[in-house]
Amino acid sequence: MDGIVFLNGEFVEAGHARVSVFDRGYLFGDGVYEVLPVIDGKLVDRENFLIRLKNSLAAVEIPWPYSEERYLDILDEVMRRNEIEEGGVYTQVTRGVAMRDFAYPRVEPCCLAFAFKKALVDNPLAKTGVSVVTVDDIRWKRRDIKSISLLGQCMAKQQAANAGAYEGWMVEDGYVTEGTSSTAYICKDDNIITRPLSQAILPGIRRKSLLKLAELEGVRVEQRLFSVEEAYQADEAFLSSATTIVLPIVSIDGKTIGNGKPGKYAALMRQLYIQMARDESPAGRPG
Ligand SMILES: Cc1ncc(COP(=O)(O)O)c(C=O)c1O
């Protein structure tokens, strides 16, 4: 965990970055976050990042720490200073430092960003596929806010890890909500099926872009609830997130999905997203 991080206006060595123990992110999990993929030395899906961060901040009444333009410049600089050609940039905004009290204090928000290397395009899991297990969705009721309070998801991911699976698909009332850190999809009869947006799931940025790309490609998408039973019977399944892009799922709860091999829609959607990322202009700033 070294490299240069951005913290409250400064770029510093990670080992020298300091945050108060009274920061509300530390005491209450009072903050929101984002992860942007980096492909070919460029931040991907920047406009959607700005939109979702704005929504998360507004939902919890944390003010924007910087202008949109400045925020993107900061993230670009974190990426460049850490020489990231492929990987991700993480950023979070917590409410700030105040004596512990539940109601919101009026203080300056605390803004952090760091970058990491990861093979996104040549991820071997895209070729092999991954397994998932279903777990109970025990989270709160505002899952549309990208909150840094992630204990429910950590518990679910650990349950999946204990079962030897790559990801946990969280289930509520018999229906899949989403992965612990990814959006969930199944395919049946040449339709891609994914849960509609609501407060029950995070509005995934990959989800938004993939649905747009699917439409352009003439691939049918149904936004509706799907049950665990239906997932077992699917022709294929896949997940999406910032740093997995799209990964095929070859088994759910130990049951083989389709023919047990990565499916064609997972491969297509993955390829379309990577192409979109490569086609985004380097400046890529919202107009
Ligand atoms: C609960 C949850 N759902 C879905 C996603 C995928 O969202 P995105 O494509 O914006 O990374 C994430 C990503 O972290 C997540 O944590």
Folded structure, characterized:
29% of the residues lie in helices and 29% in strands. It contains 8 helices and 15 strands. Strands 7, 8, 9, 10, 11, 12, 13, 14 and 15 form a 9-stranded mixed sheet that branches. The protein has a 6-stranded antiparallel sheet with strand order 2-1-6-5-3-4, with helices on both faces. It starts with a strand and ends in an 8-residue tail after the last helix. The structure holds pyridoxal-5'-phosphate (PLP). The site of pyridoxal-5'-phosphate has 13 residues, from α6 and β13.
Keywords, separated by commas or semicolons:
single chain; about 290 residues; alpha+beta; D-amino Acid Aminotransferase, Chain A, domain 1; D-amino Acid Aminotransferase, Chain A, domain 2; 2 domains; nine-stranded mixed β-sheet; six-stranded antiparallel β-sheet; 8 helices; about 30% helix; about 30% strand; globular; binds pyridoxal-5'-phosphate
